[in-house]
Write a structure and sequence with these properties.
alpha/beta; Carbamate kinase; 2 domains; 5-stranded parallel sheet; 4-stranded mixed sheet; 7 helices; disordered N terminus
């Protein structure tokens, strides 16, 4: 065994420094007075884990679709976020990650002195912009895969990731009748191949979708990642769809209630 393994670490401790800790009595959760995470002998951790157990059991084997906006990659919380997603995978949740790259594309276009064109929330994607989307979409995908490859802590639990051009197809937005504007290479989701995605999920892989969608003829389109996440969640009948934001709330304007 190598010196970095736990067994060697144990035997590197001087014998006089090794203490034998007696087992502690199991205390029912209802009888514990201290909050989880406090107290000695691991009671806090055990309480926390028992409290989580029903949720782990109810979500194991279920599909979660998680939308990761591009700006999240530049935030200090991103490494912790990826580790949390890895923990969900370890606990048996089937993850579909949908990654956007809007902030990276906008930044790169400005660096190149190219126009950043939107109509509402929809980008006008010409050929030059599409090249930037391809570049930055590849960067985002690589960053996400890199963090998932690290696993969680020292467990060597590398998370396998599947990304493919066959998970969904896209069509051009074209020229909407009520707008009269040509969105060129901006696309919308045509079809989600739920069977292909589920095959990879059943094999224990995390499925990664980006905003680059392909038409049946091989054309590439820049799709809106949030709409892609909604389409994927609907077709996969996901148990949860999670949009990561910086504190924004979703509200149903018809009812005035948070969603």
């Amino acid at each position: 065994a190598e010196a970095s393994e736990p067994a060697d670490d144990l035997f590197s401790i001087p014998p006089e420094c090794i203490e034998v800790v007696p087992p502690f009595d199991v205390v029912p959760l209802s009888a514990q007075q201290q909050p989880a995470g406090q107290g000695g002998n691991g009671h806090g951790f055990v309480s926390m884990f028992r409290g989580c157990a029903p949720y782990i059991a109810s979500h194991r084997g279920h599909i979660f679709v998680v939308h990761i906006p591009g700006y999240m990659l530049d935030r200090p919380v991103f490494p912790s976020l990826m580790e949390d997603l890895s923990v969900l995978w370890i606990l048996g949740v089937k993850l579909v990650l949908v990654c956007g790259c809007r902030e990276q594309v906008d930044t790169r276009l400005r660096q190149m002195a190219m126009p950043v064109q939107f109509v509402g929330e929809t980008r006008i994607t010409n050929e030059d912009t599409l090249r930037v989307v391809k570049e930055q979409g590849g960067y985002v995908r690589t960053e996400v895969e890199s963090y998932l490859a690290r696993g969680v802590g020292l467990t060597n639990s590398q998370v396998p990731v599947a990304s493919s051009n066959r998970f969904y197809t896209a069509n051009p937005v074209g020229i909407p009748r009520n707008w009269g504007i040509n969105f060129e290479k901006t696309g919308k989701v045509r079809k989600i191949d739920s069977r292909a995605i589920e095959q990879h999920l059943d094999q224990g892989e995390v499925v990664l979708l980006t905003s680059l969608g392909y038409s049946p003829s091989g054309d590439v389109f820049n799709t809106m990642s949030d709409q892609l996440a909604v389409s994927a969640a609907r077709e996969l009948r996901a148990s949860k769809i999670i949009f990561l934001t910086e504190g924004f709330q979703f509200r149903d304007g018809r009812e005035g209630e948070r969603q």
